[in-house]
Batch of 4 targets.
Target 1
Amino acid sequence: MTMVKKFEKAEETEKREGQIRDFVSGHWVKASPEELDAVQIFSRRLIEDYDYPKSHIQTRPQYRVRKRPSDEEKSYPVDIAVFKNSRRVEDDLFMVVECKKKNRKDGLAQLKLYLDMSAAEIGVWFNGLEHAYLRKVYHKDGRRTYQDLPSIPRHGQRIEDIGLFKRKDLKVPSDLKAVFRDLRNHLAGNVTGITRDEALAQQIINLLFCKIYDEINTGADDVVTFRSGIDEPPREVRKRILALFDDKVKGDFNDVFDKTDAITIDAESLVYVVGELENYCITEAPRDAVGDAFEVFIGPALRGGEGQFFTPRNVVKMMIDILDPEPGGMILDPACGSGGFLIMALEHVWKKMEVQSKAKAWSAVQLDRKKRDIASKCFRGIDKDSFLAKVTKAYMAIIGDGRGGVFCENSLLPPKDWHHATRDTIEIGSFNVVLTNPPFGTKIPIKGERVLAQYELGYKWKKDKKTGKVEKTNTLHEDQPPQILFLERCLQFLEPGGRLGIVLPEAVFGMPTYEYVVTFLRERTKILGIVSMPEALFKTSGKGGTHAKVCVVFIEKTVPKEGEAYVIFMADVKWCGHDSRGNPTIRKDSSGVEVLLDDVPKVAERFKEIVKGGK
């Protein structure tokens, strides 16, 4: 039995209509929005991000607290109860987590009641959209008050030490998108004077780059600057973060950030953001943190209307692994978005340089200089959205320079219409590798003779009834979908023998309407491979995402010899690591081990087998 069939069989036995398995107890529970969006997410966060053992946590059956001190019977169910040890007895209760879908005021009132009626010292309210962290404080005169916490302690950490993280202690986040969703909802509801998603995004991006800069420039045993201590006044936290942004981030990268760029959110909101992010190592996140933040904060109004959907990191890695760019090769993304392709391609090239470094005995200083030199000289990006171009520019700058190669332009315009700096840096026919996920859709057509006439695919093509051959006419289309023109522009960017990896609607290779596109490619290039992706791939991007069925196409700019036969790699990816709700497709295999169903990483391995003559 194949591995996929084993998983499918396991999935059938594991599925129950309208139910999911509780992450902690393994019990079947009703798949309510509260369970899916709050209880299960926070349970996983406690274990994977804050290191609490499952044996210390009770979810099902639910732990209960009294309604009043005199009650013998406990009747209030707690969504998640965290204990000091695995005995899980009343006196050892440490933390209660309330996940009801209430507003903040009602949620906090319920949480305080649970804390009053239990031995728990820490309380969490989390409804999937935002959170509150409280500490119960007893006073000598018998009073009981509640202290807001910027974060919760990790397992084994003193409450007093919250925020005192050394760089080496930061954790890889388990679900960064859920964290950003929490931040976005809190800021949208509580920050005065900022109501538009773009303005919120600008603030979170500024703070995110403070976080990334701090991670990269803080020694392993040094305490991070991006932190919020338990008894630290919010104004002091704000003062420290503003100094980081104004003196470090803006000072070092004054060609990226404008003098007018500022962190303007209030001190309390800033503490909320810092407290939620301080536990994590963003630069080691399993997905592009900036891309995730942008998806959550900008929303579909700005992105979806322009056909912008951000490529999942596993697909980006697969494309880069297949094209396998080398150090010194020129690399371009002409629709770079938040920079995901460029960042991962840079990491790929740097790993190869590290191997070279060992073989050639370079010093650490030499290697670092060569890495930055490659980033600056060989990586290029274009995006017509000025904010997206700025995000990529800043991200490239913080990760390893290369910011001078990113430009705000419309890639489809005639190059002579670009700014002189872009024209001087990005030339047609000069790139070894082009990687991109261009905007696509019939709702954003490209019009105008000046633009369309640059492209052979801007003209109408017609099939000769006698020969059956499809040939270009002299008549321009009135308009063309952007992905068709991007395909040809990407090929124009390549040098002879250069290679392209591009995400396109599958219809381009399946509908008779686009037969001329396939003819165009077969006559001028070698199609190296086509990888069909599942519909869920972009379904989670933005509000509802897009149902567009896409494929990833790999092309070499080499004119095939007449009659030449060559291998075209074909793959059909069934699982991409998440479903249409964005939830990880985790199933138990036949031995009961949890496995993420994701075929994408296998594609590059199979491609290389085919290229090397394997089966």
Note: Confidence is low (pLDDT under 50) at residues 1-13, 300-307.
Target 2
Amino acid sequence: MMHDDPLARVLTIDLSRRSFDIAHRPELFVEGIGGAGVGIRLLEEHCPAGIDAASPENPIVFSVGPLVGLFPLASKTVAMFKSPHTGNLGESHAGGRSAIAIRMAGFGAVVIKGSSPSPVYLAIEGGRVHFRDASALWGLRSSFTAGSVIRRREKGSGLRTIMRIGRAGERGVTYAGVITETYRHFGRLGLGAVFGSKKLKAVVASGSRTLPVANRKAFRSLYDSIYQAATTSPLMRKYHEVGTAVNVSPLNGIGALPTRNLQSGQFEKADGISGEHLAEHHLGRRIACAHCPVACIHLAGLRTPYPNDPYFYKTTMIGYDHEPIFAMGSMLGVGDVPGLLRLLDEAEVQGLDVMSAGVVLAWATEALERGLITVDLLDGVALAWGDAPGYVEALMRIVSQPTDLYRAMARGVAHAAGMYGGDEFALSFGGNEMPGYHTGPACHLGYLTGARHSHLDSAGYSLDQKTLATGTTLTPEGVADELLTEERWRQVLTSLVICLFARGIYTEDVVHQALEVAGFKGVDLCSLGEDILRRKYAFKRREGFDAAALKIPRRIVETPSPADPFDEPFLRAAISHYMANV
């Protein structure tokens, strides 16, 4: 890497001491490149073995990559921490302006340690860290209000990132997220709860550095090539026009859209909450992450009438994607757009991971139907499929936690089912709730084995659909090998912090060219991906992860999926093969 690249600087902040330190760590970025590769190294360095995730010793690591600020679609920040939700590796990615703001502030990584004695937010600006009192922001009903106050207080409009939590993070909901630029999130695995345990309300970062390139002519040529590919690709055009919600109708059509706690793979009201329907009837605005020409973020306008005035409405812009539509739509049997949008808005207000929250509510609805829990335990909320107002009330109570049941639900579906029953229909994979795909064995194997237990680890849903289209038959060993190959390559992309939607554009050859322009020569991408994944699993095992002890939700083998039929022995064999080769 180039000697004057700010990427090599690591900012370490100690909340307990209200101090900070800046270290020049080029070796980290030479070995790990950035993003996931640097993040896991810093997590190994700063996270003591076996600590409680709510301990001040649990670090928060933010890391970005060498292509940020240089090339289109290099727009993600990787966060690493010990997850309060699974007790294991926590890793979450967010777009927006977070990556470019951190790099322009002069850093490739930020490590936050310790715990503040009182609520605080951090302002990283001009190579310094300011510790701002956040007592007045703590406990506010809406995460939007906290963001609005910080925007008025701090400099850097148009350049900064504001990463903040809602009441869910303050109250320790283990799947609380961190909101960045209102419509993007570090959603999965409970980073918001780690913020809350540290009394950290928000992090603001801004700066205006210039970035060096090794060869300006080569940079310009490659930039133009990537930009052209991004703006003319049929897939990227589809994401611009309809967004990721374009997946709703095709998945429903093949029977792969989880519905009513995965009692079915098809939702009879899917057309009404599809990406096409939302774009045609409710789309109010498209926005993009920094340095992205695609603008896949779609916002719908929700008009809410004011009391006693039939002609005066409050209009709220609400972001939607495939996963939120699944979680608050088909998974709960909610098929009306206003109800769906109100649920998405409440999850945003509270600062909850929408996927985990939706799966928890789906379990609770079925548990109530089966008599495992009562309306009294739900504080009077009679959950029912399709009843969006009831689910809104339940979301608020997951955060306020007025009963033991809600306190259990605030720790996730596996914990709630362990206390109240219904384990056979609790859709938890390694402690993380199910994403929005029920395509076949590969997707579920990916959730079980992926380092984050996420659909984005190894794209098993894509492999299922490919085998469905070609009529091929998967073996346990074959599917495990395919997923492992894909996940290793994704470690490379998430170290560069490339948006995974652009993985078809950033081929191995393009990545090598981009790295050379950024000052990295001769990087062995294959070894890099293998090393990062190996480090992640070493951390997971250190913290108690045991693949042989993974619970396989019975529901996933009972509800038909479009790809090859599969059973638990198939998945066990595939898990064993995967873990033997990771």
Note: Residues 476-496 form the longest helix (21 residues).
Target 3
Amino acid sequence: MIVRRFYKRVMSENLIASPLGFNGPLPPARFNMARYCLAESARRWPDKVALIVVSDANAPLDQAERWTYGALDDAVRRVAAGLIAEGFKPGERLMIRMPNTSDYALLFFGAIAAGIVPLPSSSQLTEAEATFLLNDSAASAVAIAGGMGVNVGDARVIDESMMARLKAHAPLADYADTLADDPAFLVYTSGTSGSPKGVLHAQRSAWGRRPMYQGWYGIGPDDTVLHAGAFNWTYTLGVGLTDPWANGATTVLYNGEKDVQVWPVLLERTGATLFAAVPTLYRQILKYCDLTKHDLSALRHGLTAGEALSATLLDHWHAATGKQLFEALGMSECSTYISTAPDMEIRVGSPGRSQPGRSVAALPLDGGDVPVAQGEIGLLAVHRSDPGLMLGYWRRPEEDAEVFRGDWFIGGDLASFDADGYLWYHGRADDVMNAMGYRVSPQEVEAALSLHPSVGEVAVTELKVREDVSVIAAFVVLKEGATKDVAALQAFAAANLAAYKCPREFVFVGTLPRTPNGKVKRRALQR
């Protein structure tokens, strides 16, 4: 794989990359992501609380599940040893289909500690969607919680009883002696092909997150980080677990009933200093919660990613709390690489500048690998020497070839840079949508809806309903004789798609706008 060969060359020469390349410190040649996150913090602060899992925001906080760094390090190595004892081999894929519990985190990091490759998946996926991931990844096992369907086929099942055995095993003496470029974990993201594709990350991906520490968070060991996301999302795995633990901070995760009212309660009761969420949640908190009833004095600032941060939301949050929101832009293939840090000027409408050490540019739309001039719109690209960049797409070499141009990885976003290096986002070059921070392929949603007996044709796109709010909308051409039944289409979508992929609006049209060669013009539908 081209990415791996280039990165190994840089590491073997023990060089800091050239100006057109990652120019921060590179990870050691031998590097294990789980060891990096836990071993040093466990040595320095064995009795410090590393993780708090809250199931009931109104119950006394001392009743919440707590893990010290010492206990967490021990448990992760126990799970790693248990997996090896059960016959799992380094490099095998292990799918996780569980809710936000500590077992999810233990299994994710325990697999990495053993050199096994975990595949975190969303609990919102339907059985068919989960089965696709299991089959496409060729995972040898799947960890399943009750009520979460998947056609396991020949894969082994890790149920509650096996999980108990793993945690009871004698701990592994040390973390797996992996190379920085060895596979660590696999995540799936929507793409323009219409079906999810696997993004394979290396052990070095945790090291590749170091530019975020001060380039976005301003994080240190005294921080308590409250994250509002689910474990399957790289935003949560990174910002909610990997980075706080690598810095000796405390992380708080909530897995109780969904209720926007819990977030200010948790912020106050945990004394969270950093809060990470998508803009939509901040907007809901402002709309449905009375923040004057809560003491948010411990909170330094909020972190936001996954969706664009509007000027209106930024102003309203600051007015209501006196706190700032710092935005970041990223992707599943590299996590965040553009951000605004606490010591930077916030420029409304821009997510910030390239994080320290990273090499980011805008490349010509019509080809070539020479960055465009200041102020010119181009395809946003990250240099392939960045240690946070993926190894490649899982078993899709043709897509690897499409996204690399010379020494640059192109993610499909359109952007320009101003004289001070601030990025200005100009949308997607492809049709991929953004729903609550998740990338959603319109082709995937269209393929599911087209199976409904009343649908003749369908096109799916984002539709702006307010200045700072967009929803997924389906434009439907009915078959002859079919009736307009939005409720039936909504129910069909819910049965075949994860909730975040389901259209929020259905619009019935006579025809779909097309180009001369017959391709649907989705942007023409975005009224």
Note: The chain has two domains: 2-423, 441-525.
Target 4
Amino acid sequence: MFYSDELIEEVRLRNDIVDVISGYVKLQRKGSSYFGLCPFHNEKSPSFSVSPQKQMYYCFGCGAGGNVFTFIRQYENYSFPEALKLLADRAGITLPEEDESAENRRRRDLRTAVLEVNKMAGKYYYYLLRTEQGARAMAYLKDRGLTDETIRSFGLGYAGRYSDQLSRYLKQQGVSDSLLKESGLVQISEKQGMYDKFWNRVMFPIMDVNSRVIGFGGRVMGDAKPKYLNSPETVIFDKGRNLYGLHAARSSRKKYMLVCEGYMDVIAMHQAGFTNAVASLGTALTAQHASLLKRYTNEVILTYDSDEAGVRAALRAIPLLREAGIMTRVLHMEPYKDPDEFIKALGKETFQERIDQAQNSFLFEISVLEKSYNMEDPEGKTRFCREAARRIADFEQEIERENYIEAVAAKYQVSFEGLRKMVMSWLLQGAFVRKKPVRREDAPKKDEGIRKSERLLLSWLLEYPRLYPAVSSRIAPEDFSDGLYRKVAELLYRQLESGQTNTAWIVDQFEDPEEQKAIAEIFNTEVRVGSVKETEKAVLESMRKVMQNAVEEKGRRLDPSDIAGLQELIAAKRKIQELNGLHISL
């Protein structure tokens, strides 16, 4: 759904950032800003600031920052439309509904109805678990070491002992046969007619990121097959696009996600305090799962079973996560099979130690590769090195290749130079194929001194608008060194031309949370560097540095035959010299 800039701005204006954040963080006024403990990292001294004037927040500890939309997205792990709706509801603003075709309306109504049926089924399973009929299922969960609180928080239940128990109950509640079929909670055969998909099983509700029940997993309590049974795909349930436990894990304050194989592993880890654990739903990790994880984290630790199947699952998952831009490590659980067993045997402190020691995913792949070769035989070791070199050559960045050459050479006691030559050989043969464009974060860092001068200059312009004529007549937005800074300068210049500034609106012009964070850093740069005179001197020095850097960049790109360009360069250098006689007043 498209929402106009005017509507988005109205929602933002009706949600004062101090009022909104006060609902999440205890704030205390200090001067013109409010401070509290940052909700995005652990700290003992308040470094999290909220500015009512700028309508922005910024943490001087971890660098988190942005406007009220950014905060809700970061804290609640919401998409922008979800954050917009929450804040619109809070302000009593009704968002316009999308014009729908009859088919779209029918599908939306069906989704709503199936969600309601699943909610009713979940409550019924939850109720049955606490009856005499569910005593065996409750005993099973208790034997697995689950507490009453854990059973409650995950909404665990029991599907009755009769194969039509749920469908009879739902029909009594007015649910039609056609809706039961759409929900996936029943099956139909010529011999049995309509019967329940789940019966006499411990039930695990599967929730989406908004904690709505979209499906179920059921586990037998004996040796019957299949051990686990999942809901079929429906209008609301796609197992390749959802992760078990994500509704709870998305609110975790950990910087990484623990990805495991089964429901019980997720639940056991959450109970032990590892609330950032999720699992795929009876299927291997998919590219869609990786994209979903990328919304919430940049780092994943694979905690798959330590058996052969678990190793294969990890090897399938690693390239998908790497392609999504997620740094991946692999946790070793030997001598135990899965996280549930490990935590029961050695405790959560030892499990945390294993998390801290988790292996780099590429080195894990190489360690698995090693098992395919006889490393005692010179020919076998050479073949291993050749294959390791081929894989190292897949890395796009030279520094990455060099680092992995060094790591593999040291671990397997081979010549660094010899391995490096093998990698270069693969590169020269054209084995290295660029899979995707270089991401912005992979681009070389600009000189931090220039970036600091540009941040200061933008902050000074915001704090002292009277500087604008002197700065804008000498420094254009395109003179800033970085694309983000150029865009911010352009927007700020436009506002200063009109005589008013709105930094929260500037943040809204960027969708990437990392860019919003960088903008918050820009406008929270300390602008006083001493006395007023010293600050005025610093302004001039920052202008000089920005102008000098712009001249150098233009000079590097200038065609020697471009006479007009050369004259512009001479004029720009003259403006730098004129700064010596310029006086500015704050």
Note: Residues 445-581 form a domain with the DNAb Helicase; Chain A fold (CATH 1.10.860.10).
